[in-house]
Amino acid sequence: MSNVVFFDGVDDYVTPGTNVAVFKMGSGSFSISVRAKSVRRVGADKTALFGVAVGGGTSRYQLSLYNLNGTFGWSLKDDAGNIIETYPSTTATEAIDNRWHYFSVIFNRTSNNAYLYKDGFLVNTTSIAAIVGTVNPIGISLISSSAFGAGMLDGYVSEVQLYNRALSDDEILYNNSHPNNPKRRGLVLNLTQDSIYGPTWLDLSGNANNGTYVGGAVPQVANRLSGR
């Protein structure tokens, strides 16, 4: 048993601190991971697991991990809100199954590929060479928010990590198995099950990007073990 954050699927989200490093989509590599358990909702075809953005209103780059019709994927939007790139196809891996999963997306600017992982294992590789926006930064604004063109998360989150570099396959696998002790190099945001207490979700990366609960998102005690 451990602490998790519950999102009611209506208006709950977490907004981290403003010290999160900013990344250039055209030149910088980064990695995002979230451990979550989604619950299928009647009438909901898309549920945001995690999102990052910078700026206000609709003028910003947006990257989100999401569930779409039971599948898991990522989507990137430009300043005008137009989708630049999206995965999955209709045959993507199942994600909304009422079980805990560790989801990751890696943007690697050396290979110009985006790598999608589930539970520490690679499930898709997508070319991002055509993605433009070398002057538009991306940084964290919201977690589990409808601002990314997806429904609000109906479920639970126990950890979130953001890196300013591309993690390797071995590092993703290691982080999946070590939720309280992830790789430290390049770690910009580290929200864990052990830091869910008090009025904020404490960032253990050392960057003071503590998360604020909005709309009723609330910590609670639950079994965070995968599959429970």
Using brief descriptors, characterize the structure shown.
228 residues, mainly beta, Jelly Rolls, eleven-stranded antiparallel sheet, four-stranded antiparallel sheet, 1 helix, 4% helix, disordered C terminus
Runs in which pLDDT lies below 50 for 5 or more consecutive residues are 54-59, 224-228
Beta-strand percentage? Answer: over 45%
CATH topology group: Jelly Rolls
Chain oligomer state = single chain
Q: What is the total tally of β strands?
A: 17
Q: Shape from CA axes?
A: globular
Termini separation comes to 10 Å
The residue-averaged pLDDT reads 74
Topology (SSEs and partners):
Layout: E1 2-8, E2 13-15, E3 23-24, E4 30-38, E5 46-53, E6 62-68, E7 71-77, E8 83-87, E9 101-108, E10 113-118, E11 121-127, E12 137-138, E13 154-163, H1 169-177, E14 187-197, E15 200-203, E16 211-214, E17 218-222
Antiparallel strand pairs: 1-13, 1-17, 2-16, 3-12, 4-9, 4-13, 5-6, 6-7, 7-8, 9-10, 10-11, 13-14, 14-15, 15-16
Protein architecture, described:
This protein has 228 residues and is mostly beta strands. The protein has a single domain, classed as Jelly Rolls, CATH 2.60.120.200. Helices cover 4% and strands 46% of the residues. It contains 1 helix and 17 strands. Strands 1, 2, 4, 9, 10, 11, 13, 14, 15, 16 and 17 form an 11-stranded antiparallel sheet that branches. A 4-stranded antiparallel sheet has the order 5-6-7-8, with no helix packed on it. A hairpin with an 8-residue loop joins strand 5 and strand 6 (62-68). The longest helix has 9 residues, at 169-177. The protein starts with a strand and ends in a 6-residue tail after the last strand.
